[in-house]
Design brief:
about 50% helix, 2 domains, mainly alpha, Helicase, Ruva Protein, domain 3
C-alpha cells in the first residue's frame, strides 16, 4: 500500500468511498461491496507527514490496524521458520548446527522472512545441514563474527566455555549493528560502558580488512 502512486491512491479512495468503479476500456459503471485488507512495510503516518500518502485514504484504511513485528523482534521464532523452510525443501533435519542457528538468532534480518528463506536455500546449496560449519558460511552469518574474533578463538564448533561464547555472541551482535556500539549495547541488554569494558577484556576489534 505504501508504494501506490498518487494517482492510484485517488482511484482507490474513490472506490472505497463510493463502491463504484469502471473497468479499463469500459464505460459501464460497476458496483462493488468488498472488504479491503491492506499491507505495507512503511510507516504511513510518516508518509502522510511528508505528503507521499493521502491522509483521507489512510483514515479509510486504518480501521483495525495490526502490526506484525519484524523478524529481529521475534528471534525465538527463527528456529521454527528454519524448520518450516527445511521441511518445504523436503529435508528431514529440523535445524542447522547450533553455531549457525546462534548466528541466525544474532542477525537482524533486514529482509525479514524472505532473507531468512534465501539464507536457508544458500546453506543447503553448500552441503548437508548437519555437516556445515560456521567458519565456512558466507556473509551475513559467518563473516561478521569471524572477522571480529581473533584467530586464536575463531572456531565456533564444539564445546565452548561461557567466556568464549559471550565474546563470540558480542562480536556477532556488533557485526549485525555495523559496529554501532550504543545499538549493540541496547540489544545485548547492557550499559554501553559495560560493552566497552568487555571489548577491551576480550580484545574484540572491528575488522579493517
Amino acid at each position: 500500500m505504501g508504494e501506490l502512486s498518487s494517482e492510484a491512491q485517488v482511484k482507490l479512495l474513490r472506490v472505497i468511498e463510493s463502491g463504484e468503479f469502471r473497468r479499463v476500456g469500459s464505460s459501464d459503471l460497476l458496483r462493488s461491496d468488498v472488504r479491503v485488507v491492506a499491507a505495507t512495510n512503511r510507516e504511513l503516518g510518516a508518509e502522510v507527514a511528508t505528503g507521499r500518502f493521502r491522509k483521507d485514504l489512510l483514515f479509510r484504511l486504518d480501521v483495525v490496524p495490526l502490526r506484525l513485528p519484524p523478524l529481529r523482534e521475534r528471534r525465538d521464532e527463527i528456529p521454527l521458520f528454519v524448520e518450516a523452510f527445511l521441511r518445504a525443501r523436503g529435508r528431514t533435519e529440523r535445524a542447522f548446527p547450533a553455531p549457525i542457528m546462534d548466528a541466525m538468532r544474532a542477525h537482524d534480518w533486514p529482509g525479514n522472512l524472505r532473507e531468512l528463506r534465501n539464507q536457508v536455500d544458500r546453506l543447503l546449496l553448500m552441503g548437508e545441514p548437519g555437516t556445515l560449519h560456521l567458519k565456512d558460511v558466507p556473509p551475513p552469518l559467518g563473516a561478521g563474527a569471524l572477522a571480529a574474533a581473533p584467530a586464536t578463538e575463531s572456531a565456533l564448533d564444539g564445546d565452548l566455555t561461557l567466556k568464549t561464547f559471550e565474546r563470540q555472541h558480542i562480536a556477532r551482535v556488533l557485526a549485525g549493528c555495523q559496529w554501532n556500539r550504543r545499538e549493540a549495547a541496547s540489544r545485548l541488554g547492557i550499559d554501553p560502558r559495560t560493552l566497552y569494558r568487555k571489548l577491551r577484556e576480550y580484545g574484540i576489534q572491528e575488522a579493517t580488512a
